[in-house]
């Protein structure tokens, strides 16, 4: 989720793009997920794409290669991210109790990454209020669970971002007062949300 004006500009656009490409490739190489570009479905793919909200299929690579990416109407981005490394409250508590270095913190009692997966998305203003965010969130939920065994999602929103709050509520998120992720620097303007995947056993 975006944090708005509270985060000042620190890098140029080109620097951000280069950094995101490197980080995203690392996520895909190691965990098999990361950032997605989101576009409206072109006519030549509509017959291969589910119409039900939240449904998804992995399209044949040869079919996708025939699509003119420059002709697509881009909606925004979506992302699943391993957020274990940013659960500030638990990480600092563990380090204090064990007098340990950050590099070994993840061998301790912190949750596995399947229980700390961040869901993120961003839309162009032309696509606000049209149901795209809910559809994106539904896809991320279903795909993360089916393809990667995700057991819990987390997310953060600005208190003033009523649209994102509604999207998270519609997709099953509830407010998380324990704040495992949103730290004290964000607490005045940010809310933390959590979705735990129901057990099938």
TrEMBL record:
Domain N-acetyltransferase, first and last residues per copy: 43-198
Superkingdom assignment: Eukaryota
Transmembrane segments: none
GO molecular function terms noted in the UniProt entry: acyltransferase activity, transferring groups other than amino-acyl groups
Protein name stated in the entry: N-acetyltransferase domain-containing protein
Organism encoding this protein: Exidia glandulosa HHB12029
